[in-house]
Design goal:
Blueprint lengths: L1 E6 L9 H7 L4 H10 L2 E3 L2 E2 L11 E6 L16 E4 L3 E6 L16 H8 L6 E2 L8 E7 L2 H8 L3 E9 L6 E3 L2 E3 L7 E3 L7 E9 L3 E8 L6 H8 L22 E9 L6 E5 L4 H6 L2
Parallel strand pairs: 8-15
Antiparallel strand pairs: 1-4, 2-3, 2-4, 5-6, 6-8, 7-8, 9-14, 9-15, 10-13, 11-12, 13-14, 15-16
Length: 280
């Protein structure tokens, strides 16, 4: 069980414990969980979240979690490129789903996480499609999940069919007809903004560095197809399948604030071989 020691600063002298904890990133749900489990103490004595705290006091927070874990599968392979008591970051290969489903019950990142961290619930902060490769940040407890969701920044790399002009697509995205999977640009959709710049490629393909203002399902794939330059290998949205058998999309950079130490963590993952081959 993760245990945090927090010192009350001067600006929270006389404040309720919950006000101080909220300032440290504890969500309403996490505070309710502390009440239910008696996980907040001061000097070894139980502390209610509505009790006053004072400058210099040390509060002890014990983070418990009753969320279920997936079935462990230690035979899977996705390198852990960063790890501490609150966070694990995987470099996920293509073709590995993040979550179990009817067709994928034991071959997902969740199954590997369960094998590496027995008893810990799987909490991915950025959820990559099965065929998208790259960095996947996972929280090891509910507090870390809440804190990370507000600090995580991502950079994607994509290879397109052709060389797209401009640097931004601002077009709303919604469901395509009755499909529960496919998306499209539609006036009835939610606003979606994608920024990109060309950082490499060939005469027929562009390697794009992509950042997102919004986080819509399939956003990069839909926007590139919408302007006429679908991702290579993206069969769903009209991409050429001859050079790669999955959509050419990779989460290559992430940065976040470590939930407890507040250190800025920046991580990178190199472009996978199948994407590199497209732009040689």
């Amino acid at each position: 069980m993760r245990e945090l020691k927090l010192i009350v600063p001067a600006e929270f002298d006389g404040a309720e414990a919950q006000a101080f904890l909220k300032s440290r990133g504890f969500s309403r749900r996490a505070l309710i969980r502390l009440k239910q489990t008696g996980g907040l103490t001061r000097g070894g004595a139980l502390l209610r979240t509505v009790d006053e705290v004072h400058c210099g006091e040390e509060l002890c927070v014990r983070l418990s979690d009753d969320a279920e874990s997936a079935e462990p599968n230690p035979e899977l392979n996705a390198p852990v490129i960063y790890e501490d008591e609150d966070v694990a970051v995987f470099d996920k290969p293509p073709y590995m789903p993040v979550h179990p489903s009817i067709r994928h019950r034991g071959d997902t990142l969740a199954n590997l996480f369960a094998a590496l961290y027995p008893g810990l619930p799987f909490r991915p902060i950025n959820r990559l499609d099965r065929n998208t490769s790259g960095l996947c940040v996972c929280a090891k407890n509910q507090y870390a999940a809440s804190a990370l969701s507000g600090s995580l920044s991502k950079v994607y790399f994509a290879v397109t069919c052709g060389i797209p002009p401009g640097d931004t697509v601002d077009a709303p995205i919604g469901r395509a007809g009755d499909s529960i999977i496919t998306r499209c640009v539609t006036p009835e959709g939610q606003r979606a903004v994608t920024h990109f710049e060309r950082v490499g490629g060939s005469d027929s393909h562009a390697l794009l560095k992509v950042t997102l203002e919004t986080g819509r399902t399939h956003q990069i794939r839909v926007h590139m197809a919408y302007i006429g330059f679908p991702l290579c290998g993206d069969e769903m949205y009209g991409g050429d399948m001859s050079g790669i058998k999955r959509h050419a999309l990779h989460c290559g950079e992430v940065s976040f604030t470590q939930p407890v130490t507040k250190e800025i963590i920046r991580l990178t993952s190199p472009l996978p071989a199948d994407m590199s081959e497209l732009i040689k």
